[in-house]
Specification:
Length: about 300
C-alpha cells in the first residue's frame, strides 16, 4: 500500500512505470511489476502481482496485447473498481503497425518511437488529473516538462541514426521489436523471431538473414537484453562460415529497460543507449556517452 495521502499505482513494464513516475511526481507511489531483463510477452503474473493489481488505486499497462498473460488480472481489477488504463489507448489505428506475422493484431512496441511514447505521457497525465483533480495542474506541468525532454531525445535519435550511411541502415536483432523505431527513424529492421518471443525462429529464417548479411555486407548485428542471444549468435556463425565477418554491435534494450537506479534504467536512457549503440556500430556518428553524457554500456553486454 502507498503512504498516506499518496495514490497507490501499479504499472506493468519498466517503460510504463517510468513515465507514470515522471508525471505523478510526489503524489503517488508507483510499483513496477516487470524489471530488468523481463520479457513481457512471456511474463506470467504471480499471486503477489495479482494482489498488487487488485489492491491498487490505479493500474497502467502498455496494452495492444503486449502483456498477454496479464489480461485476466486487468479485467478482474477493472470489475472491482480499480482505475485501469492502457497508455496506448489514444493512438489512432492509422498510426499502429500490423505486421503479417501478428495475424491481425497490432504491433505493441510503440515506445520505440519517441513521439508515440510522448502521446502515452498525455494519457497518463489526463488519467491522473481525473482521479486526483486537486493536483491536476501538477500532472499537466510534469507531463509538459517531460515531453520537452522527449522531444530532445527524438531529435537526437533522428540525428544519429541519420548519420549512418544509407546503405548500412539495416538493423538485425533477436526479434521484431524495432518496427516503430525503423519507421520513425528511417531504417530497415529484420528480427530473427517474430513480434512475440513465443515464436520460434526457423532454420529457413536464419538462413535468409545470413544471406542478407553476406549480400549487403552488413557489419553488425544486435542482441537484446530480454531475449535469448542464441539465434543472433547463429547469424554471426552462419555469416562466418560463408567468409563474411559480422560483429556483435552491442546489446539493445527492447522489451525491458536497464537496471533500476541506472540511467539506462529510465526510458530516456534506454532509447539513448539504443540509438547511440546502433549508430556507432553501423558507421554513424554518435558520442559514446550519448545525448546526456550518461551512458555506460554502449557496445557491452549488460
Amino acid at each position: 500500500s502507498a503512504p498516506s495521502g499518496k495514490i497507490n499505482i501499479v504499472a506493468t513494464t519498466g517503460m510504463v512505470a517510468d513515465i507514470v513516475r515522471e508525471v505523478a511526481g510526489d503524489h503517488a507511489q508507483v510499483t513496477g511489476l516487470m524489471g530488468e531483463g523481463v520479457d513481457p510477452h512471456l511474463y506470467k503474473p504471480t499471486n503477489k502481482d495479482s494482489r498488487a493489481v487488485l489492491g491498487a488505486d490505479m493500474v497502467f499497462y502498455n496494452g495492444l496485447m503486449l502483456e498477454g498473460r496479464m489480461g485476466d488480472a486487468m479485467t478482474k481489477a477493472g470489475r472491482k473498481g480499480v482505475d485501469v488504463y492502457a497508455v496506448t489507448e489514444e493512438l489512432d489505428e492509422q498510426f499502429l503497425l500490423e505486421p503479417a506475422a501478428m495475424a491481425g493484431h497490432w504491433d505493441p512496441h510503440v515506445w520505440m518511437d519517441v513521439s508515440a511514447w510522448s502521446r502515452a505521457v498525455t494519457v497518463v497525465a489526463n488519467a491522473l488529473g481525473e482521479y486526483d483533480p486537486d493536483h491536476q495542474v501538477d500532472y499537466q506541468k510534469h507531463a509538459a516538462a517531460y515531453q520537452a525532454q522527449l522531444a530532445e531525445l527524438d531529435d537526437y535519435v533522428r540525428r544519429v541514426i541519420g548519420s549512418i550511411p544509407e546503405s548500412k541502415r539495416i538493423l538485425v536483432t533477436a526479434h521484431d521489436a524495432f518496427n516503430y523505431f525503423a519507421r520513425a527513424y528511417g531504417m530497415q529492421v529484420e528480427g530473427v523471431q517474430g513480434i512475440s518471443t513465443e515464436s520460434e525462429a526457423g532454420l529457413k529464417r536464419i538462413n535468409g538473414l545470413v544471406d542478407l548479411l553476406v549480400d549487403r555486407k552488413i557489419s553488425a548485428v544486435f542482441r537484446e537484453s530480454s531475449v535469448s542471444a542464441k539465434h543472433v549468435d547463429a547469424l554471426i556463425d552462419g555469416a562466418r562460415s560463408r567468409g563474411h565477418t559480422v560483429a556483435y554491435g552491442g546489446e539493445l534494450f527492447s522489451d525491458a529497460m536497464g537496471a533500476t537506479g541506472t540511467y539506462e534504467g529510465t526510458y530516456i536512457g534506454m532509447l539513448d543507449h539504443n540509438a547511440t549503440t546502433i549508430a556507432r556500430a553501423l558507421g554513424g556518428e554518435a558520442p559514446k556517452k550519448g545525448l546526456n553524457g550518461e551512458l555506460t554500456l554502449v557496445g557491452q553486454a549488460h
